[in-house]
Amino acid sequence: MSALLTAEGLHLHFGKVAALDDVALEIHPGEVVAIVGESGSGKTTLLRVLAGMMAPQAGQVLYAGEDVHAMGEAARRRLMRSDWGFVHQNPRDGLRLRVSAGGNVGERLMAAGARHYGDIRAEATEWLKRVEIDPARIDDMPLQFSGGMQQRLQIARTLVTRPKLVFMDEPTGGLDVSVQARLLDLIRALVAELGLAVLIVTHDIAAARLLAHRMLVMRRGQVVEQGLTDRVLDDPQHPYTQLLVSSVLAA
Amino acid sequence: MSAQDEGRPIQSSTPDGAAAIGRHAIRTEALSKDFTLHLQGGLRIPVLRDVDLAVAPGECVALAGPSGAGKSTLMRCLYGNYGAGSGHVWVRHDGRDVDITNADAREVRAVRRDTLGYVSQFLRVIPRVPTQQIVAEPLMARGVPREDAMAHAAALLSRLNLPATLHGLPPATFSGGEQQRVNLARGFAPGYPVLLLDEPTASLDAANRDVVVALIAEAKRAGTAIIGIFHDTEVRDRVADRLYEVAPLQDAA
């Protein structure tokens, strides 16, 4: 099976700082890939470049054979509405705060072409249930929700159109531990059920172990190690990966 | 450019013309493993050297040797959880031999889904997921319908003396012995052609040990190749067809 997304030779420097230094990556359908590393390692930059939100200074990103950075803004937005989804660390960046919970989910469906109001509302209700939000709150505004609920709403909004590839930037960051576990469970169940490919940026090694099939370790803009998640974590080869793994508190 | 070398080469080397391993379900070839501890000034610890082990379908081999000899390390290499320093681990998968040591991550996943099972000593699962689902998941991943997978999981859990009242609960609050039985049910449920068992009876009582011995015997009859570490010599003698000695390297040198 061929790769869904392929990146090659990505370079991006902010002044003297290399955010991306010759990064290559492939992701296949149904695959969950985690990108880990400390703050400033370039992992969020990589996610934004792969998702077409930021242009690299060199290298290219291909999605289904098409150059993501050469396709133009309109085509990229179309991709974001159909094949792709992006889950932001802060749910407020991914939600429309002046639109109801149901509206947030329904809006994505309408953007993807749904027109029948009753169908849209029914599907929005169904998705609120799937992410464990009481459907009775369908007309509430996102700001009336807790952080964990907002994050689940963002996930519902993202997945309702059944994207093939979802980018996630620290989706459990800033949430209570109990809420994190629930969210991890939810993400994993949805990934298995919908066969999504997911690129997830996280500094939570334990979460990456449970969610990701494959892992990339970044440091100073370089991918220093990559492979099967449990092998990278249990038999790390690179000095930085060994430091990263040995610094994690066992739970 | 040593940092660049760490990204393992992505290649699926399954030479079609390689010497047929014939009747072996899993086979190592001159497998060696060292650990290099970069945080300890690059200290190198050799653990395995030139291990040649072959196991046929229906055969159970027990790894023997003192603590620290590298038995668990060998098991983890067989599962691809540890990489190899040199040598190969050939697993018969889907009609061909796949080298777990250098197959790409997606191929290792496919081998683990369909062919190679591993019961570790500790259960590591997502919080909140109910026990029955944990056991049913590997079956569903292979395409078994959800209802059948759940029914099979429940039957196996009950056989391992985990009552139905526990099936709907996540195992986080279970005792060590109960968690081990969840792990065993998850490992035995799919009927893998190759099964690795790391101390499968360590925290079990006599009745449950007997269940595990029976499960191993049934798996062997069904053609499963089993490699196990059994500190319980009574269990070992009941299930193992032969021993494979893993000698500490200092002694072997």
Record the SSE blueprint:
The complex is a heterodimer of chains A (251) and B (253).
Chain A: E1 5-14, E2 17-27, E3 32-36, H1 43-50, E4 58-63, E5 66-67, H2 73-81, E6 84-87, H3 91-94, H4 101-111, H5 117-130, H6 147-159, E7 165-169, H7 177-194, E8 197-201, H8 205-211, E9 214-219, E10 222-228, H9 229-234, H10 239-246
Parallel strand pairs in A: 3-8, 3-9, 6-7, 7-8
Antiparallel strand pairs in A: 1-2, 1-4, 4-5, 9-10
Chain B: H1 2-5, E1 26-37, E2 43-51, E3 54-55, E4 60-64, H2 71-79, E5 86-93, E6 96-99, H3 105-114, E7 116-119, H4 131-141, H5 146-159, H6 164-167, H7 176-188, E8 194-198, H8 206-221, E9 225-229, H9 233-239, E10 242-245, H10 249-252
Parallel strand pairs in B: 4-9, 4-10, 7-8, 8-9
Antiparallel strand pairs in B: 1-2, 1-3, 1-5, 5-6
Helix pairs in contact in B: 4-5, 4-7
**Domain count of chain A:** 2
The number of distinct β-strands of chain A equals 10
Order of helices and strands of chain A: EEEHEEHEHHHHEHEHEEHH
Q: What is the multimeric organization of the chains shown?
A: heterodimer
Can you tell me the number of structural domains of chain B? 1
Strand content of chain B: 15-25%
Tell me the number of helical segments of chain B per DSSP (H or I, 4 or more residues long): 10
Tell me the series of helices and strands of chain B, N- to C-terminal.
HEEEEHEEHEHHHHEHEHEH
Low-confidence stretches of chain B at least 5 residues in length (pLDDT < 50)? 1-21
Named CATH architecture of chain B: 3-Layer(aba) Sandwich
